[in-house]
Amino acid sequence: MVYLLHEEPASKRRRRDTGCPCHDATAFRYAPATVGKVTAGAMTIEPFKQNPERTLIRTLTVCLCRIAGMALFVMGLVYWVRLIGIFDGPLWRFDLMPVWWRFAAPTLAVLYPVAGIGLWLLASWGSVIWVLLTLVEIIMHLGFPQLFGGDLMPVALNLTGLMLLAILRIVAYLDERRQS
């Protein structure tokens, strides 16, 4: 059952000597809410009417953020596996990595899961960390391909995801602006 908080009529109020001015000024009570239109004094409360287009945009944005969040978190786990040295290989143990990978791998090991958690929670800072993470990878793979390799797949996937997120947010903004 749903309850609404509404103000008691002045005739039903009784004065309470609690010493707190907010308790003496107005008395509130909970009453069962009804489905449909509810009128409480001069204020009318109606059920929220959803726009199907807006709901679709929001659903697509949530799905993209959740899928990207899971993928980024898994990539963070991969970088942590590289750092702790579960597998043999020059780039799979921190003490065997070249100096440039010793700088990049811990940075990415921290940024990937933080961005993943932020996107999963739909927090605004998640997309900011994702942009920062993508910039780091662009600098690594495009700026220094002789050191980090020319593997453009992570950069392409991150840029594609960010572009989709930007398109969805722009469409949602324009739709909201059109409706108001």
Protein architecture, described:
The protein has 180 residues and is mostly helical. It folds into two domains: 3-45, no CATH class; 52-179, no CATH class. Helices cover 62% and strands 9% of the residues. The chain is built from six helices and four strands; from the N terminus they run βαβββααααα. The chain has helices at residues 21-25, 52-84, 99-120, 124-143, 145-148, 153-179, and strands at residues 3-7, 28-32, 38-40, 43-45. The strands form two sheets. It has a two-stranded antiparallel ribbon. The chain has a two-stranded antiparallel ribbon with strand order 3-4. α2 (52-84) runs antiparallel to α3, α2 packs antiparallel against α6 (153-179) and α3 runs antiparallel to α4 (124-143). It starts with a strand and ends with a helix. The relative contact order is 0.10.
Write the layout of secondary structure elements.
Blueprint: E1 3-7, H1 21-25, E2 28-32, E3 38-40, E4 43-45, H2 52-84, H3 99-120, H4 124-143, H5 145-148, H6 153-179
Antiparallel strand pairs: 1-2, 3-4
Helix pairs in contact: 2-3, 2-6, 3-4, 4-6
Strand order of the largest sheet: 1-2
Which strand-content bin applies to the residues? 5-15%
The number of domains is 2
Query: Count the strands?
Result: 4
Order of helices and strands: EHEEEHHHHH
Using the CA coordinates, give the radius of gyration: 27 Å
Chain-averaged pLDDT = 80
> What is the global morphology?
elongated
Major beta sheet, specifics?
2 strands, antiparallel
Compute the number of helices: 6
